[in-house]
Design brief:
Blueprint lengths: L16 H8 L5 H10 L9 H19 L8 H10 L5 H13 L4 H7 L3 H11 L10 H30 L14 E3 L6 E3 H7 L4 H6 L1
Antiparallel strand pairs: 1-2
Helix pairs in contact: 3-4, 3-7, 4-5, 8-9
């Protein structure tokens, strides 16, 4: 990327390459989506800055294809993006897809120049949208939230399965409740705690043993 790829923003309201392209390509609404995907505590949904930059660039390509009235099948945008940007793609295949797009009136050089880097994505999110995400800021709290989500997910899945078995008559059961109890045992002092309690206490009983 050239220096033109670097965001100029140092605060909300100033120029940002990502913000400019959102306006230029008519991608209003993608900003909150990018922020949410970067800051969410859900590990299954969280995206890295590099992943978000690629996602954004594919949206630029998709808009260009739609503007050119090019019909796209499922996965075609992703494949076209790969052919344009993946260094492992042969020169012949890159040339083929480039000519195909140019025949439809798409300026491929300008499009690729519009593609943003992860640095530009970082600047947009942190400077333009004032978003912050630091997964090292409070690792205990982050782990606690993750455990609670996982326990809730496991509980919901088990409850759904048992309810289905109960309805079919495969299991005889009255009203029921599913409790997911994950415990941690310290092999030195024998302390046994559920995960959330351990994270709240942040210690086992080894400290007391050491004081004796």
């Amino acid at each position: 990327m050239t220096s033109a790829d670097d965001d100029q923003s140092s605060s909300r309201g100033r120029s940002s390459k990502v913000a400019r392209l959102i306006e230029q390509y008519g991608l209003q609404g993608i900003g909150p989506q990018l922020e949410e995907l970067w800051t969410t505590d859900d590990p299954d949904r969280r995206r890295s800055l590099r992943s978000l930059a690629e996602f954004f660039n594919r949206q630029l390509l998709k808009q260009e294809l739609e503007q050119a009235d090019m019909q796209t099948l499922d996965g075609e945008v992703e494949n076209t993006f790969r052919l344009l940007t993946d260094e492992s793609v042969s020169q012949a295949n890159q040339t083929r897809v480039r000519r195909q797009l140019e025949r439809e009136g798409i300026d491929v050089d300008q499009l690729k120049d519009d593609f943003v880097s992860y640095q530009s994505m970082r600047t947009y999110l942190t400077k333009y949208r004032d978003a912050t995400y630091d997964n090292d800021a409070e690792p205990v709290a982050s782990t606690k939230r993750m455990v609670q989500r996982l326990q809730s997910r496991v509980s919901n899945v088990i409850e759904t399965k048992i309810a289905a078995l109960k309805k079919s008559g495969a299991v005889s059961l009255d009203e029921f409740q599913v409790i997911v109890d994950v415990r941690v045992i310290c092999e030195r002092c024998g302390t046994q705690k559920d995960v959330i309690s351990l994270l709240d206490d942040r210690k086992c009983d080894c400290t007391q043993l050491g004081d004796e």
